[in-house]
Design goal:
heterotrimer, A alpha/beta (about 325), B mainly alpha (about 300), C alpha/beta (about 375), A: about 325 residues, alpha/beta, four-stranded antiparallel beta sheet, 11 helices, 12 strands, B: mainly alpha, MetI-like fold, globular
Chain lengths: ~325, ~300, ~375
């Protein structure tokens, strides 16, 4: 398997050669194409990419919530060594919530508007843990309190619409942590929130997960959030991983040309560049993914081999990049 | 980056998901075939009908009450039998479904125009106009459609001068009354969609450009709210036909000289117990087939246009 | 050449003469612009009536509810300048944007464009003025009519204002506009759903440029786009501004983006401007506590895992704003005066404006 990327402990979650495809009457579209990575216990892995890269879908595959007609057509997902991609619906339901928690982007639709917040928490707790009603209620109030909601006991009986956006997301975090899962999949947890609230929520998530020892798979398009939260980050492009490695390395010493372009196009406060670096063109649609390296039509360093050979993830510095110009046996020498 | 899709309208239609769901749904195809056949049959009635049921000269009382051709005493010239005046049932059905279709389609078209216009104005302009139109609609909805049609029919008959061209008047009044009974559902649907669309940014963009409100309603909002209207319309054609048949059955529809399917069923009913069953069964079957095929087409259209079901 | 330099080749291309045919005639923004400002916003306010329906008010005894979305805002925009307004949700920046293009009428105050009051846009004489100001919207999916062809969408301003006539002339102009925004002439026959988000935003820009406006209001034009697409669109907008001499009002919640596009930046909070300063001054030496809070809340990509200073509290409900200075519940410098008296925007020596008692009286 991938050497420089594998963390030292036995991984909590392992994704091996995952393939997710959509079949409709026009044919089969491969949305995730041979993606492999692992997450260690307590680690925060960021999955970054633009729209259509497949990062949300990867999260959905892990939780088992891919919407039909999409489905997993290849590879394996292992949680603590046991396969979870081939479980039936009731088995998956047990895993979801108890072992894997989920936080989605929109707190408004993640909560049931017709039930009080407390009731939803208690329901989740009692589904997965064997606690009495009173014990569950105590635990729920504790959770609400630990997420920074003031007067938790009173707000226990409030409905979601009585909370502001940031407060709602705290409730969602409480819900996700209710059954003490080992892993949380968070899909754009702060995108719908104001900038000043984003910081609070990210800090909260980080602190709580550190306290509970929960690993996080943080899916987002916001590099800033990744920079301050993640330990490692995977950059996805067109359903494949372009680069994966420690956060500081991927951000400051990117190797894959796409990562380089991406970092260059992010506006920063400190630098007042004349123009932002821009990558021409756009991410290919699923029905038009180029052969060879998916990035080759837009890559400023493309050579002929890139159009025919699909690069594997190879070592590049302290990370791994899927580029023919990197790795010990680089097919194309780096000419920088 | 963009798909290589043909840009001609017909090319896009045949390539579209709607057409695909159509041709893979046996019910939709069968219903469409039946509907098309019946429509063609009625439109081409003068060419297809073996006899002309309105030409009094060709009627021969000797031919009256003949059973269908495959039963003893029937004649091949009258495949589905004849009525008490010697008129061929098949020809009468073909001509009669003309009336039914005319009333059905015209009343739906009129109801659509009324309902869509009022719904657009109501949803877009809001305020007192909206309240007024909607309260009128609410009041009207509390009356059953047949009752409204009867009411308007009765009033119109008493208002119109004597027997002057009673036949054309009767059909016009019929179309008008059925339309008046049915416009509300279009208005409500369109009003709801309009209220959503008017806050969308493309409407605001048009306002910034300086397009006037009427032009915005007509050119920008209308094309985007018509979808559900078409679905309601197709299903409504069937109900309109049945409403016309009911009214004719009750004697307040088309005059008996120009029989529609409804009047045929009405008169035929009287002969049912004396054994001449074909006078009511065949027109009844025709009515059922026509309405069912249009209904099924409407069902398919509704499902095809519903993105959640795909 | 390093990889980043290869991507940065566009930096060089940006300096070449443009294709739109106009001379780059942008006055330098560092020298004071002595010409009359193009847009003058004079103490505008906008109040929305969000009361419950009349019947509910009678039956349940509920009071009228008024939302003061914008409360006494004044600023000017010079010709050729880009003024950015930043703030979080509920601060009123989108409302101001819509008032500046005539979508909303101010409840109080006046907006003047080239000396003419915008409330005259409804009159026949004022109608022509509409062609001089246009707007670009946030949502690339909702800002183009899905049933219209691209050619019709782009040509609409031309047809409404009758700035050109003749099918061929209009078609040629459409093609030129499409090229100017980086698309091809063949795209004119397509429908919006055949384009990606970034391309649709380019189409919006092409439509906005069709009537040759002088002033563009951009309401979060890149917030819904991916970061690399955003870079393309921001670069494009910059090129067009240089080539056509446009003036921009740029609304955003993203301070980093604002840093790249703006000449001057106004920070808004709950309907009021709290600070307005040239960009460099604002980012290097923010004065108002809220500005400082916003800047501190931005994730630091350049650091390594460094935590941001978490901001205290949340934006209060705009229906029930705090008294006096609306920021006082969250302000580390708040004192008694802040609770009772609303601070006014005061000009400092370097031309920037701040509305804060603490700054004014030099509290430490």
């Amino acid at each position: 398997m991938i050497s420089t990327d594998t963390p030292v402990n036995p991984p909590l979650l392992e994704v091996k050669n995952l393939q997710v495809a959509f079949t409709n009457r026009r044919g089969t579209l491969v949305a995730i194409d041979d993606v492999s990575f692992s997450i260690a216990p307590g680690e925060v892995l960021g999955v970054v990419g633009e729209s259509g890269a497949g990062k949300s879908l990867t999260g959905a595959a892990i939780i088992g919530l891919i919407e039909p007609p999409g489905r997993i057509v290849g590879g394996e997902i292992l949680l603590e060594g046991r396969r979870i991609d081939n479980l039936d619906a009731s088995q998956m339901r047990r895993i979801r919530g108890r072992q894997i928690g989920a936080i989605f982007q929109d707190p408004l639709t993640s909560l049931d508007p017709l039930q009080t917040v407390g009731r939803q928490l208690v329901e989740t707790i009692r589904t997965h843990l064997d606690l009495s009603a009173t014990q569950a209620r105590h635990r729920a109030i504790e959770l609400l309190d630990s997420t920074g909601i003031p007067a938790a006991a009173a707000r226990f009986d409030h409905y979601p619409h009585q909370f502001s956006g940031g407060m709602r997301q705290r409730v969602v975090i409480a819900l996700a942590l209710a059954a003490e899962p080992r892993l949380i999949v968070a899909d754009e947890p702060t995108t719908a929130l104001d900038v000043s609230i984003q910081a609070q929520i990210i800090a909260l998530l980080k602190r709580l997960c550190r306290e509970h020892g929960t690993a996080i798979m943080l899916v987002t398009h916001d590099m800033g959030v990744i920079a301050e939260t993640a330990d490692r980050v995977a950059v996805m492009y067109a359903g494949r991983i372009a680069e994966i490695g420690p956060v500081a390395d991927v951000i400051h010493r990117p190797h894959h040309p796409y990562t380089v372009g991406l970092m260059g196009s992010i506006p920063l406060i400190g630098h007042a560049r004349e123009r932002l670096a821009q990558i021409d063109g756009a991410m290919p649609r699923l029905n038009a993914i180029p052969s060879g390296c998916a990035f080759n039509p837009r890559c400023p360093m493309v050579v002929d081999a890139c159009r025919t050979i699909r690069p594997e993830l190879v070592a590049a510095g302290r990370s791994m990049a899927a580029c023919l110009r990197h790795g010990a046996h680089a097919l194309v020498p780096v000419t920088e | 980056m963009t798909d290589a899709v043909s840009t001609s309208a017909t090319g896009r239609f045949f390539d579209s998901d709607i057409f695909y769901s159509f041709r893979t749904s046996p019910v939709a195809v069968a219903a469409a075939l039946v509907a098309v056949l019946m429509i063609l049959g009625s439109v081409l009635a003068p060419l297809l009908a073996p006899h002309d049921p309105f030409d009094l000269a060709t009627l021969d009382l000797n031919n009256s009450l003949l059973p269908p051709a495959w039963i003893a005493q029937g004649q091949a010239a009258f495949p589905l039998g004849t009525d008490d005046q010697g008129r061929d049932v098949l020809s009468t059905i073909l001509y009669g479904s003309r009336i039914s279709l005319l009333v059905g389609l015209a009343s739906v078209a009129l109801a659509m125009v009324m309902g869509v216009t009022l719904g657009l104005l109501s949803g877009f302009l809001g305020g007192r106009l909206d309240s007024f139109i909607m309260r009128t609609a609410d009041v009207q909805l509390s009356f059953p459609a047949i009752l409204i049609a009867l009411l308007i029919n009765g009033v119109a008959r008493s208002l119109l001068p004597g027997n002057a061209n009673l036949e054309a008047m009767a059909i016009a009044v019929l179309i008008g009354s059925i339309a008046l009974a049915n416009w509300v559902q279009y208005a409500r649907t369109v009003r709801g969609s309009t209220m959503v669309e008017k806050h969308r940014e493309y409407v605001q963009a048009a306002q910034v450009i300086g397009v006037g409100p009427l032009a915005i309603m007509r050119r920008h909002v209308l094309p985007n709210v018509l979808g559900p209207v078409l679905v309601i319309g197709t299903i409504n054609v069937a109900t309109a036909i049945i409403t016309e048949a009911t009214l004719s059955f009750l004697g307040v529809g088309v005059p008996p000289t120009t029989p529609s399917l409804g009047t045929m069923i009405n008169t035929g009913n009287n002969f049912l117990y004396s054994g001449e069953w074909w006078l009511v069964v065949f027109p009844g079957l025709a009515l059922i087939l026509l309405c069912m095929s249009v209904n099924l087409l409407g069902d398919w259209l509704r499902d095809a246009l519903n993105p959640r079901l795909q | 050449m390093s990889l980043i330099e290869r991507f940065g080749e566009h930096i060089e291309r940006g300096r070449e003469p443009s294709e739109s045919g106009r001379e780059p005639s942008l006055p330098s923004t560092t020298a004071p612009n002595t010409a009359a400002p193009l847009v003058v916003v004079d103490a505008i306010a906008k109040t929305f009536d969000v009361s419950p329906p009349w019947l509910n008010r009678i039956l349940e005894g509920k009071p009228r509810l008024l939302l003061h979305a914008v409360d006494d805002v004044s600023f000017e925009i010079a010709r050729g300048e880009t003024l950015a307004l930043v703030g979080e949700s509920g601060c009123g920046k989108s409302t101001i944007a819509r008032m500046l293009v005539g979508l909303y009428k101010p409840s109080r105050g006046q907006v003047r464009f080239d000396g003419v009051d915008l409330s005259e846009l409804g009159s026949p004489a004022g109608r022509q003025m509409r062609s001089r100001l246009q707007m670009i919207f946030q949502d690339p999916y909702a800002s183009l009519n899905p049933r219209w062809k691209v050619a019709d969408i782009i040509a609409e301003p031309i047809r409404v204002h009758r700035t050109m006539s003749g099918k061929d002339a209009i078609a040629a102009r459409i093609e030129a506009l499409l090229k100017q925004v980086g698309l091809s002439g063949a795209d004119a026959a397509k429908y919006p759903h055949q384009f990606s988000g970034g391309q649709r935003q380019r189409l919006s820009i092409a439509r906005a440029l069709a009537s040759r406006p002088e002033f563009l209001v951009c309401d979060e034009p890149t917030s819904a786009l991916d970061v690399s697409v955003q870079a393309q669109v921001l670069n494009l907008m910059r090129d067009i501004q240089r080539a056509d001499g446009l003036t921009y009002l740029f609304i955003s919640h993203n301070l980093a983006v604002v840093n790249h596009v703006a000449d001057r930046v106004g920070v808004m909070y709950l309907g009021r401007i709290v600070e307005l300063a040239p960009k460099r001054r604002l980012f290097e030496m923010p004065q108002h506590p809220y500005t400082r809070m916003l800047l501190d809340a931005i994730p630091v990509i350049d650091g390594s895992g460094q935590m941001r200073t978490a901001v205290s509290g949340e934006v209060p409900n705009p229906l029930n704003p705090p008294s006096g200075c609306t920021f006082h519940p969250r302000c580390p410098l708040a004192r008694e005066r802040c609770r009772s008296e609303r601070p006014l925007l005061r000009q400092s020596a370097d031309g920037s404006q701040v509305a804060c008692h603490a700054i004014e009286e030099n509290w430490s």
